[in-house]
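User: For my dataset I need records formatted as: sequence, then C-alpha cells, nothing else. Please produce one.
Assistant:
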Amino acid sequence: MQSNKIKYIRINLINTDRIYKEKIKLDFSNKTKSDKSFFKRLKDRERAPRCLWFPIIPFKINKNENDRKLQHEEISKTVNRTLFGMLSFCIFCIFTLSINDLKLLTTNALIKLPFANIEIDFKTFLISAPLLLAGIVFYLHVYYGQLRLLDKPEEDSLHPVIFNLSSKNAQFLSIFLLYWQAPLVLIFFFWKSIPQPFSTIPFYIMSFITFILVFLQIRRCGAETRRHNRYLWVILTLISFIFIDKTIVKIQGKPIFCSFFCRHVKFLYPVFEWPFQRNLQLSNMNLSNTILKKFNLSYANLNNSDLSNADISGAFLENASLRNVKMSSVRAVGTNFSSADLSYSIIEKGDMEGSIFNQTVLRYANLNEANLRRCLFNQADLVNATLIGADMREIKISHTNILNANFSNAILNGTSLINQIPNQDLIKSSND
C-alpha cells in the first residue's frame, strides 16, 4: 500500500519538474546513443575531451553591487602585484643570463640574488630560477582564473589595472604578460643551458609551462575570438611533438619525429633541430684546468684556445672548430669529436681513450705520447699528423687518410686497418 502511494506521488509531479525530468532523460538517451560513435562524442562540448577547452561556466551567486565590487577589486590587486612581480623577476633573469659564454663553463661564476641578498653559482641559477618562475606562474593563474569567474562590476567601477581595461592595446599587452612572458624567458633559460649536462631540466620546465599557458589561452578565449585558436593548436601540437621527440632521444638516443621530418617534411626539420644547437664563441679563451665533463660543445668555436689539463670526458664536440688549440695533458675519455676540425692542435700526452673521430680533421695535429686506445677513426684526415710514441692499441682505422703521418714508436697492437690511404710505416708497425 505504501509503495503504491510513493508511485502515485512520483507520477503527480508538478509540470516544471516533470518537464525537467523528461529533458534530462531525453538528454541522457541522446548521450548513450552518441557513445556508439566516437566522432559524435568528440563533437559534444559537454563531454570529455572537448569539455576541457569548452568549459561550462559555473553558477554564480548573486551578490549586491558593493560585495561584487570589493571582491573583484581585492583579487585584481593580488593579480596585479603578482603579475608585475613576475615581470621584475623576468627582467632580472634576462639581464643575468646576458653574460659572456665563458662564465657558462666556469665553476666559480656567482650570481647575487637581489631579493634574498645571497650568492649562488650559475649552474644552480639555471635550475632554481625556472622552478621559481614556474611557481609564480601557477600562483598568478590560480587567482586570475578565479577573477574570471566573478561577475564584473560596471566598467566605471573596475579597478584600474591593465587586464581590466577594454582597449585593444591593453588586452594585447595583458595577453603577452599573462601567457607569453614566462615561456619566452624559459626559452632563454633553456637556450643558455644547452651546453650544460643538465639542460634537459630547463627544457622540461619550459615545455610544461608553455604547454599549460597555451592551453589556458585556448580554454579562456571568448566565442568571438575562438577562430584564432587554430594557431594556438598548431603551437600546442609542435610543443607536444618536440617534447616527445627529445624524451625519446634521452631514453633511446635516437629521434623519431626529427628523423621523419628530415626525410619527408624538410621545412619542419629546423623546428626540431636548430633550437637545440648553440654556436658558443670561445676562441682565444683560457680554459685550462676547467672541468667540462659531458658538456655539449657542438658547433662551438674554440680556435686558438687553451684546454691544457682540462677534463672534457664524455663531452660532445661534433662540428666544433678546434684549430690550433692547446690540449696538452687533456683528459678526453669517451669524447665525441665527429666532424670536428682539430688541425694544428697540440694534444701531447692527452688521455683520449675510447674517443670517436668520425670525419674528424687532424691535419698537422700533434698527438705525441697520447693515449688513443680503443678510439675509432672513420673517414678521418690524419695527413701530416704526428703520433710519435702514441698508444694506439685496439683502435679501428677505416677509410682514413693517413698520408705522411708519423707513427714512430707508436704502439699499434691489435689495430684494425680498413681501406685507409696507405702509409708504409703504419703498415709495417701494425704487422710487427
